[in-house]
Each structure stands twice: as C-alpha cells, then as structure tokens.
C-alpha cells in the first residue's frame, strides 16, 4: 500500500507550521505527480462520425491509434509509479527530523507559557477546571485563560507532529501521546535498587487520569519533575515507551534475586543487555 497520502499529509502539516520544505521534497513531489498524472490520463473524446463513408475507416483508425498509444503510455507510467512514490515518501521521511526540530522552539515557548500560568493557578489539579474555577479571582482567571490558549496551541502542534511522523511509521505503543512530548529518565542500577519506579510511575498514571482535562493535564506536566519535556523524533516514542518496560523488568530482576548483591548484579546485567 502506498504511503504517498501520509507523505502529502506530512508536507501539508509542515507548510501549516511554516516550516521549510526542502527542494528534494518538492522535486520528488513533482516527479511523483507527473508519473501519477500520466498513469491516470483519461481516454480522448471520440471524434465526430464523418458524413461520408470514405472517411469513416480513416477516422476510426486514427482514433484507434490514439487510444492504443494512450493505453501503452498509461501502462508504461504505471511501471514507474512504485519508484516515484518511494522516492517521494523517502524524501519526506528524510525531512521529518528537521521539521520536528523546527517545532521544538515553539513547543518550548508554549510550555513556558503554561509553566508561568501554572504558578498562579490553584495547587489542586481538580480546581483547574472551568466548572470549578473561582472566576472572581482575577489572578486565577487570567492565568487559566493563558494556560488554555497555550494548551490549545500545543494540542494542534502535537497533532501536526503526528501527521508528520505517520509517514515514517507513526508512533505506536501505549501512552504515545505522553511519550511524544515527554521522556522518562534512563534507568540506572542505583535508581532501580532505590525503587525509583514508585516515584516515576504515578506521573504516567496522572497523565492518563487527566485525559479529558487538557489544561490541567499540561499544568501537571510542567509542574512535575520526573519526566523531561521534549518532542520525540520518528521512532523515539517507541523507544521512550520501551523505557517503561525496562524500569519494570529491572525491578523484577531486583526482586527475584535472593541477596542484595545478587539483586544488584541482576539489575546491572539486565540494563546492560537492554541498553
């Protein structure tokens, strides 16, 4: 199945974000479109039937030759379509890391807006809700309005990022919305032995719980200290999600050992094997 629609969507998202589209993408797109247009050329209109019998056969022969040439041309174009599609898709894939890098500045700026607003919002997350806000508190209402505007822009930015990476296989995995914008720390033997997962896992659970409250969700994300915030490049979401399993499995390795030294050795070996 062709990935050209995903590539087109990725380019549209990049243009929407005013990110530069490389010449290689433009050129590959022009080649792909030329091949596709040739393969889809419609049959020519049937010429008018002559009034005299002497001209009929010649008109038919000429029209048949035209149809035959067009049919052969379309068949020939179809033989080039796979290569042209692949060339275009690959050019778009090659551009994605730079596009996501271009989004990072805006992402950081918007996160900063929410962080500034979060300092003026209620400490309790359940109070960061338009149905429960004290709108008579000018500081709270102004901060919420700013946080809400930034959250809307962040959600659109993240949606555009998702459109971009889909052509490279998408994100996949559980909690991909979180790991598209944040990452767990790399587990170390010392952290696993200290059972730091008990400190990290609640951050993921809280993100899930706030699914229907985007403003509170982002406020929570900028306040917490366990996850680092950055946009993921293609494939990085899966890598970030895999860190969850590394933390959990390293914990199992620690608990399955009979002695403290055995636990430390088991954890170190597991992390080395999965690095």
**What is the alpha-carbon Rg in Å?**
28 Å
User: How far apart, in Å, are the first and last alpha carbons?
Assistant: 34 Å
User: Structural class, from secondary structure content?
Assistant: mainly alpha
Biggest sheet overview? 2 strands, antiparallel
Number of helices: 10
Low-confidence stretches: none
Residues in helix, %:
over 70%
Annotation, overall tally of beta strands: 2
Strand arrangement, major sheet: 1-2
Summarize model confidence as the mean pLDDT.
92
What would you call the shape?
Answer: elongated
Strand content: under 5%
What are the secondary-structure elements, in order, as H or E?
A: HHHHHEHHHEHH
Describe this structure in words.
The protein has ten helices and two strands; from the N terminus they run αααααβαααβαα. It is mainly alpha-helical and 275 residues long. It has a two-stranded antiparallel sheet with strand order 1-2. Helix 2 (23-39) runs antiparallel to helix 3 and helix 4 packs across helix 8 (214-223). The protein is elongated, with a radius of gyration of 28 Å. The chain starts with a helix and ends with a helix. The relative contact order is 0.11.
